[in-house]
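User: My collaborator sent over this chain with a note saying "see what the structure looks like." That's all I know about it. Can you take a look?
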Amino acid sequence: MREKSARIGENARASRRVPVHDGRVTRKRLHRATGDRPAPFWTTKTLAEMTDAEWESLCDGCGRCCLQKLEDEDTGRVHLTVVACALLDVRTCRCSNYAERARYVPECVRLRPDNVASLVLPTTCAYRCLAEGRPLPAFHPLLTGDPRTVHTAGASVRGWAISGRDVPDEDLEDYVVALSEGDDRGS
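Assistant: Without extra context I'll predict from the sequence alone. Here is the result:
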């Protein structure tokens, strides 16, 4: 048995056919007997193939998708504000009531594999990156193992967003962000 394991480790990565939840069969990489780890799920699965736990782990906690947006009625252009949803804790950049957010904020959009491309998401958003065939940004917690890196990289709303609890809807236009060229906070 030991000899067989050594031969497998010396060969190129082995693969086997495994069933996927919808009955299809796909190829999945096996790790080498030498201890190599399998490829990360986000590099081997489509967004639609991910489990709920995998899907949720893609969120880096930047909070930028929770910023209020205004659409110009004449041009259809979407403008980003510095005002976050009333449920977003702007210190932690996490929803204060994620499980019941639709109950309290009916306009909260539930991100799904079939609507990622149609939403205004930052270019560093993991959902958008993967949908566009790009890798996760270097600061992403799945790569660093540290949920704080999104903040230390300056990619979150921490330090500049304000809570929607503090701003009446009729005043939102006063909080539109003037993005400089290359700034992707809004799109």
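A starting point for your reply to your collaborator: The two ends are 54 Å apart (CA to CA).
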